[in-house]
Amino acid sequence: MKLIWFDALLLLLQLLFSKAASEFNIETLPGYSGTLPVKLETGYIDVGETEEVQLFYYFIESESNPKMDPILLWLNGGPGCSALSGLFYEIGPLAFDVADFDGSLPSIHQNPYSWTKVANIIIIDWPVGTGFSYANTSKGYSSSDTKSAKDNYTFLRKWLSNHPMFMKNRLYVAGESYGGKLVPMVALEILKGNEAGFHPRIFLQGYIIGNGITDPNIDFNERIPYAHRMALIPDEYFESAKISCDGKYYNPDPKNLQCLYALRLIQESIKNVNGRHILEPKCKIMAPKPDELGCDQTLADDDSIDHLLLPSKMDGLWCRSETYATSYIWANDPTVQEALHIKKGTITDWTRCNRGLSYEHNIESVVQYHKILSKKGYEALVYSGDHDMGVPYMGTLKWIHGLNLTIDDEWRPWNVNGQVAGYTRKYKKNDFYLTFVTVKGAGHTAPEYNPEQCLAMLDRWLSLYPL
């Protein structure tokens, strides 16, 4: 009996130690003066068939009412772009002081438009190999769309089990760019888990997608109509491509020479346009690729530290991608990794977006996932920066129309500070409501360009207040 009691006590201590060793409350960070203004937690959750994958995360409590405010599970894009990127450049409460950055450890200040003003946020380094996430085996580094969806769901269940005080909070799966593709997949995993009676039951209320990839045959095919609409190509180029390509511009028939010629003329017209934001400079570190009508070529910046120029000036131009140098200097600093409680020896060279992942894109389209969710009575917010040519809003509208929803509120402007912030339309199907929003002047992705407007959008939507 004593031996059994001792074994049970040892197991309990191991569990407590394991939990304590993988979750840390962060009160100070290098670069920030004083105590952090928010409650920040970092940690690892093990997932995978043999728990060989360690997914690193940041959790920031709501600055309003953590016990009552919803939880957003935020998935960055890529795949392979770190959670830190979303935390510091988009929706998090902290931001690097880019203006005074001189190449040394950057200073950090508060982001007044953080989404933590209205929600608790979990941001994951997904898939394995991204940011500070790692695997214990070489085989563990292989991932895919379907595996990532299951791993992210497993992560969420385990995280909630470790944080019972948040089990009853409303939850929204949210993501951007390629993360938007995973959003409905993870939401469906949650739905299936709830229906199967898995514990804990997750109070999924809906999902949020920003500048999200859904189906490349829809999203990327709309790049040329978008370029025409934005006066980047002339009418005759567009009409020629439309006729010779029969409206199929993405992955055209290689035997259709007329189509290929028409697309080449268009490519010449737009090759020096920044696809992430058509009004911003196309810098040398974002040099034209052989085929910018493909997926990765348009959405991937080569922003590795070797290519970033300091200070952030090049030929007199300001280049947004150069501002990402702050993250490389900061995240690779040993004192920062110690403060974040990164496990020593797991990450030798942190990169903002890892383009060398062993990742299988095994789900081409997630339209069917949206159709399934549209029958279940959730709320969906789908927004697009209207100056994003990589995943243009026209493609997003096209797949939304394919869901056969009914228009509940017609197309109209929405305002912030008395100015038009974009346009919105609301759809419904039984108890399912989808709100589509454009963010005027924003690129890929919207919160990085128009943070004040995006916070207002989120706040109103979560409050069930009309945009």
Distance between the termini: 64 Å
Give the class from helix and strand content and strand pairing: alpha/beta
- Per CATH, what is the topology of the largest domain? Rossmann fold
Counting structural domains, the number is 2
User: Would you identify the CATH H-level superfamily of the largest domain?
Assistant: Alpha/Beta hydrolase fold, catalytic domain
CATH architecture of the largest domain: 3-Layer(aba) Sandwich
User: Looking at the structure, what is the overall shape?
Assistant: globular
Percent helix: 25-40%
Strand content: 15-25%
* Most strands sheet: 12 strands, mixed
Q: Identify the CATH class of the largest domain.
A: Alpha Beta
Q: Point out poorly predicted stretches.
A: 1-21, 286-312
Instruction: Kindly report the average pLDDT value.
Output: 90
Number of helices: 15
**What integer value in Å does the Rg equal?**
22 Å
Structural overview:
With 467 residues, this protein is of the alpha/beta class. It has 2 domains: 295 residues, Rossmann fold; 113 residues, no CATH class. 32% of the residues lie in helices and 20% in strands. The chain is built from 15 helices and 16 strands. The strands form 3 sheets. Strands 1, 2, 3, 4, 7, 8, 10, 11, 13, 14, 15 and 16 form a 12-stranded mixed sheet that branches. Helix 3 packs across helix 4, helix 4 packs across helix 12 and helix 7 packs antiparallel against helix 8. The N terminus is likely disordered.
